[in-house]
Design goal:
mainly beta, 16-stranded antiparallel barrel
Length: 381
Amino acid sequence: MNRYLLAGAAAAALALGAGAANAQAKFDVKVGGDAYFEAGYVDQDVDSGLRSTEFRNRMRINIIPSAKADNGLEYGARMRLRANSGASNTRTTDADRAYIFAQGTFGQVRMGVSNSFNDETYVTASMDYLKLGAYDDVTAWINLPSSTAGTVTGNSILNPSIAPDANSTKIVYFSPRMAGLQLGASYTPRNDSSNTDISRSKPTGTLAGTSNGIYQDMVEVGANYNNTFGGVTVKASAGYMWGRAVDDVVGSNYKDLNAWQLGANVGYAGFTLGGSYIDYGKSGQNERTGVFTETTRNWTVGAQYTTGPIVVGANYKNGKDAGSLGTTGDRELQVYEIGVGYTVAPGLTLQAQYDYFDLDNDASAADDKGNVVLVRSILAF
């Protein structure tokens, strides 16, 4: 029922906005994007077979055709092309965003492969010394022992967003912002289906399975607030997402998706202080005899100071999941981080960060701790 209501609301908003739309409108095409080059040094206890240094880079290009009708309706599309490593380092290019949009006094509707509402608007600690909002990216450098929890497809143990469907085809609605408050919702038929793919099959599991991160009929609702009072900036967000896991399997109990998020941020005179908390519960885990399930959650708190072209900050991140579902206990990752950024010129930034991490794994042989140093240059255009 929820998906029909959301789809109907999106269709009604588009119909109301269409009115006397001018079919001869001229499209403007904007091209933009971002790129980074990053160098890293890692010193960790569990380093057998691992090198200490590595480089990586990425480039993304946004192509946005848009037009505006006589009645004020704005409409268009967006595609984000991304240079990827690909399987076996084949250096492929993919499109991780591709959607149609329409916006007006009713708000904005997106249809296609897009961020969900909360993934686009969630609030957490300010970390402008990190690249392009990649708050959890340090996990890519520390070679975490793999977790078989499989709780939420595509989400890191430190990810502050509740969206496991960012690269799936969906409908998203953003309301107009009124007195600082914005509401929104999204519907995703299946979180492993995107672009031209048609997947009408229901997610399946087995009696022997421990988890399944594929969900259907995912619905997300949320709200965010952004306002300024006497020089004090206040930001906050809250969101909830639910969806169905695999069909019933006799003797098994795959838990449906249930996730929620809260975040807040306060800024004054260049200083900001904030944090966020997210909880996935036991989403996707098979709560049956012989499987050791645990709640997945993470939280972050941090502060930063910005003056002119310089930003400095520090934060603490704590993520916990079930680790190996064949072993009792959970997996916890703690990260202490400091960083600095310097804007050399408009669109060109240099950054450096240091992270100390401590991993406590239910498989005790996989406990680990160490240090990560990263330096990077970022281009945004």
